[in-house]
TrEMBL record:
<dbReference type="InterPro" id="IPR013320">
    <property type="entry name" value="ConA-like_dom_sf"/>
</dbReference>
<dbReference type="InterPro" id="IPR009784">
    <property type="entry name" value="DUF1349"/>
</dbReference>
<protein>
    <recommendedName>
        <fullName>DUF1349 domain-containing protein</fullName>
    </recommendedName>
</protein>
<dbReference type="Pfam" id="PF07081">
    <property type="entry name" value="DUF1349"/>
</dbReference>
Amino acid sequence: MTETVSIPAIPAPLRWLNEPEAWKVAGSDTLEVRAGGGTDLFTDPDGGARYANAPALLTRLEGDYLLSARVRLDLESTYDAAVLVLHADAQHWAKLCLESSPQGHPTIVSVVTRGVSDDCNSHTVDAEDVQLRIARLGPAFAFHARTGDGPWNLIRYFAPGAEPRVGFLAQSPLGQGRTVRFEAIQHSPQRLPDIRSGE
């Protein structure tokens, strides 16, 4: 990791894990990241390929918190994705993605990796206004997604097994590269009272 990045909405400096082709912070709560072609973070559960070259901007946040962002990208190639990510080390990490499915549909996808990746497609969404959120609850984390002003839908509830940093990732495994925009980034140092309430 090299350059320190400041996003005013995040109360701690961030650093790159794999630098992007380009990036930009706009205002207090917007980040753009350009991932090159052939970039991904995935360890195939069949024991095959391992990919760990997707650009990710990470920080360490203490205590319980909520971290959310509205995500925007042109879903052109299969598995292009805008991602909120937890990353402890090469063996322990997790992704919450707005990702292009093989059928070309914007899809909410979660991946939890403890040595190998556990990959789960949740549901397709309207890609015009999609928000992703990570909630920390002590050693556990909850992934949520919503469209517009609708309820937060629980996507995944898990413990990563190691202390992670948190942040933003862009990927384009099969494409020529993709620019991802994270807007309305929000951090709140609070514990989510009920992960299934929709709030």
